[in-house]
Specification:
The protein has 191 residues and is mainly α. It has one domain. The chain is 79% helix and 0% strand. The chain is built from seven helices and no strands. It is elongated. The two termini are 34 Å apart.
Amino acid sequence: MKTNTRIVLCTAALAALMLPAAAQINQRKDNQQDRIANGVASGELTAGEAAKIEKKESNLNKEENLMRSENNGKLTGADRKVLNQQQNQLSKQIYNQKHDAQTQNTNPKSEVGKRAENQQDRIAQGIKSGQLTAGEASKLEHKEAAINHEVRTERAVNGGTLTPAERRQVDRQQNRVSNQIYNKKHNARHQ
Protein backbone atom coordinates (compact mmCIF):
# COMPACT_ATOMS: atom_id res chain seq x y z
CA MET A 1 0.00 0.00 0.00
CA LYS A 2 2.77 2.43 0.88
CA THR A 3 4.56 1.67 -2.39
CA ASN A 4 1.39 2.43 -4.37
CA THR A 5 0.97 5.69 -2.52
CA ARG A 6 4.55 6.69 -3.28
CA ILE A 7 4.09 5.85 -6.95
CA VAL A 8 0.95 7.95 -7.14
CA LEU A 9 2.63 10.87 -5.38
CA CYS A 10 5.72 10.68 -7.60
CA THR A 11 3.56 10.51 -10.72
CA ALA A 12 1.55 13.52 -9.56
CA ALA A 13 4.73 15.45 -8.77
CA LEU A 14 6.20 14.71 -12.21
CA ALA A 15 2.97 15.70 -13.91
CA ALA A 16 2.92 18.93 -11.92
CA LEU A 17 6.46 19.77 -13.01
CA MET A 18 5.55 19.32 -16.66
CA LEU A 19 2.52 21.64 -16.48
CA PRO A 20 2.94 25.40 -16.94
CA ALA A 21 2.59 27.38 -13.72
CA ALA A 22 -0.88 28.75 -14.53
CA ALA A 23 -2.14 25.28 -15.42
CA GLN A 24 -0.77 23.91 -12.13
CA ILE A 25 -2.63 26.56 -10.14
CA ASN A 26 -5.87 25.96 -12.05
CA GLN A 27 -5.54 22.17 -11.76
CA ARG A 28 -4.96 22.49 -8.03
CA LYS A 29 -8.05 24.67 -7.64
CA ASP A 30 -10.09 22.15 -9.63
CA ASN A 31 -8.81 19.26 -7.49
CA GLN A 32 -9.65 21.07 -4.27
CA GLN A 33 -13.12 21.99 -5.54
CA ASP A 34 -13.66 18.29 -6.34
CA ARG A 35 -12.55 17.35 -2.82
CA ILE A 36 -14.99 19.87 -1.34
CA ALA A 37 -17.82 18.67 -3.58
CA ASN A 38 -17.12 15.04 -2.64
CA GLY A 39 -17.05 15.99 1.05
CA VAL A 40 -20.42 17.75 0.76
CA ALA A 41 -21.95 14.87 -1.22
CA SER A 42 -20.64 12.22 1.19
CA GLY A 43 -21.66 14.15 4.30
CA GLU A 44 -18.04 14.43 5.50
CA LEU A 45 -18.42 18.21 5.30
CA THR A 46 -21.34 19.93 6.98
CA ALA A 47 -22.92 22.95 5.34
CA GLY A 48 -21.11 25.21 7.82
CA GLU A 49 -17.73 23.59 7.21
CA ALA A 50 -18.19 23.78 3.45
CA ALA A 51 -19.22 27.44 3.70
CA LYS A 52 -16.04 28.36 5.59
CA ILE A 53 -13.80 26.44 3.19
CA GLU A 54 -15.51 27.92 0.12
CA LYS A 55 -15.16 31.42 1.59
CA LYS A 56 -11.41 30.84 1.97
CA GLU A 57 -11.23 29.49 -1.59
CA SER A 58 -13.10 32.56 -2.85
CA ASN A 59 -10.73 34.90 -1.01
CA LEU A 60 -7.75 33.02 -2.44
CA ASN A 61 -9.18 33.39 -5.97
CA LYS A 62 -9.63 37.13 -5.39
CA GLU A 63 -6.05 37.41 -4.17
CA GLU A 64 -4.78 35.58 -7.26
CA ASN A 65 -6.78 37.92 -9.52
CA LEU A 66 -5.31 40.92 -7.71
CA MET A 67 -1.77 39.54 -8.11
CA ARG A 68 -2.40 39.03 -11.81
CA SER A 69 -3.82 42.53 -12.27
CA GLU A 70 -0.70 44.02 -10.69
CA ASN A 71 1.56 42.18 -13.18
CA ASN A 72 -0.25 42.50 -16.53
CA GLY A 73 -2.12 39.21 -16.14
CA LYS A 74 0.88 37.14 -15.05
CA LEU A 75 2.00 35.70 -11.74
CA THR A 76 5.55 36.24 -10.54
CA GLY A 77 7.54 33.41 -8.99
CA ALA A 78 6.94 34.99 -5.58
CA ASP A 79 3.20 35.18 -6.27
CA ARG A 80 3.10 31.49 -7.23
CA LYS A 81 5.01 30.59 -4.06
CA VAL A 82 2.53 32.53 -1.88
CA LEU A 83 -0.46 30.98 -3.66
CA ASN A 84 1.04 27.50 -3.32
CA GLN A 85 1.55 27.97 0.43
CA GLN A 86 -2.02 29.20 0.81
CA GLN A 87 -3.33 26.29 -1.25
CA ASN A 88 -1.34 23.93 1.01
CA GLN A 89 -3.01 25.43 4.08
CA LEU A 90 -6.44 25.19 2.47
CA SER A 91 -5.75 21.59 1.48
CA LYS A 92 -4.94 20.72 5.11
CA GLN A 93 -8.12 22.44 6.27
CA ILE A 94 -10.19 20.48 3.78
CA TYR A 95 -8.60 17.25 4.98
CA ASN A 96 -9.08 18.13 8.67
CA GLN A 97 -12.72 19.15 8.20
CA LYS A 98 -13.51 16.03 6.19
CA HIS A 99 -11.96 13.82 8.87
CA ASP A 100 -13.31 15.42 12.03
CA ALA A 101 -16.27 14.12 14.01
CA GLN A 102 -18.80 16.48 12.41
CA THR A 103 -20.86 14.98 9.60
CA GLN A 104 -23.94 15.89 7.64
CA ASN A 105 -26.78 13.38 7.88
CA THR A 106 -26.82 11.60 4.51
CA ASN A 107 -29.79 9.38 5.33
CA PRO A 108 -32.37 11.66 6.94
CA LYS A 109 -35.72 10.28 8.04
CA SER A 110 -37.75 13.51 8.11
CA GLU A 111 -39.12 15.41 5.13
CA VAL A 112 -37.14 18.49 6.23
CA GLY A 113 -33.94 16.43 6.45
CA LYS A 114 -34.49 14.82 3.06
CA ARG A 115 -35.02 18.22 1.48
CA ALA A 116 -31.84 19.57 3.09
CA GLU A 117 -29.90 16.52 1.85
CA ASN A 118 -31.24 17.03 -1.67
CA GLN A 119 -30.13 20.66 -1.65
CA GLN A 120 -26.68 19.68 -0.36
CA ASP A 121 -26.43 17.23 -3.27
CA ARG A 122 -27.38 19.99 -5.73
CA ILE A 123 -24.73 22.32 -4.26
CA ALA A 124 -22.11 19.53 -4.38
CA GLN A 125 -22.96 18.85 -8.03
CA GLY A 126 -22.67 22.57 -8.81
CA ILE A 127 -19.26 22.77 -7.14
CA LYS A 128 -18.02 19.66 -8.93
CA SER A 129 -19.26 20.79 -12.36
CA GLY A 130 -17.93 24.33 -11.92
CA GLN A 131 -21.42 25.83 -12.24
CA LEU A 132 -20.99 27.37 -8.78
CA THR A 133 -18.05 29.60 -8.00
CA ALA A 134 -16.42 29.30 -4.57
CA GLY A 135 -18.11 32.54 -3.49
CA GLU A 136 -21.54 31.39 -4.65
CA ALA A 137 -21.13 28.01 -2.95
CA SER A 138 -20.00 29.72 0.25
CA LYS A 139 -23.11 31.92 0.38
CA LEU A 140 -25.44 29.00 -0.36
CA GLU A 141 -23.75 26.82 2.26
CA HIS A 142 -24.06 29.62 4.84
CA LYS A 143 -27.81 29.76 4.15
CA GLU A 144 -28.11 25.97 4.43
CA ALA A 145 -26.13 26.02 7.69
CA ALA A 146 -28.44 28.71 9.10
CA ILE A 147 -31.53 26.65 8.26
CA ASN A 148 -29.94 23.53 9.77
CA HIS A 149 -29.10 25.45 12.95
CA GLU A 150 -32.64 26.82 13.19
CA VAL A 151 -34.13 23.32 12.75
CA ARG A 152 -31.85 21.87 15.46
CA THR A 153 -32.75 24.70 17.85
CA GLU A 154 -36.49 24.36 17.25
CA ARG A 155 -36.37 20.59 17.65
CA ALA A 156 -34.44 20.94 20.92
CA VAL A 157 -37.13 23.28 22.25
CA ASN A 158 -39.99 21.01 21.11
CA GLY A 159 -38.68 17.65 22.29
CA GLY A 160 -37.24 16.56 18.95
CA THR A 161 -40.01 17.57 16.57
CA LEU A 162 -41.07 20.61 14.58
CA THR A 163 -44.50 22.15 14.89
CA PRO A 164 -46.56 22.46 11.69
CA ALA A 165 -45.91 26.22 11.67
CA GLU A 166 -42.16 25.64 12.04
CA ARG A 167 -42.23 23.08 9.21
CA ARG A 168 -43.98 25.58 6.94
CA GLN A 169 -41.39 28.25 7.84
CA VAL A 170 -38.49 25.88 7.13
CA ASP A 171 -40.16 24.84 3.86
CA ARG A 172 -40.39 28.51 2.77
CA GLN A 173 -36.71 29.03 3.65
CA GLN A 174 -35.70 25.89 1.74
CA ASN A 175 -37.77 27.06 -1.26
CA ARG A 176 -35.85 30.36 -1.30
CA VAL A 177 -32.50 28.58 -1.09
CA SER A 178 -33.59 26.08 -3.74
CA ASN A 179 -34.39 28.93 -6.13
CA GLN A 180 -31.05 30.56 -5.32
CA ILE A 181 -29.19 27.30 -6.03
CA TYR A 182 -30.90 27.07 -9.40
CA ASN A 183 -30.21 30.72 -10.26
CA LYS A 184 -26.55 30.55 -9.21
CA LYS A 185 -25.97 27.33 -11.13
CA HIS A 186 -27.50 28.83 -14.27
CA ASN A 187 -25.91 32.28 -14.31
CA ALA A 188 -22.92 33.08 -16.50
CA ARG A 189 -20.33 32.62 -13.72
CA HIS A 190 -18.22 29.47 -13.58
CA GLN A 191 -15.37 28.27 -11.40
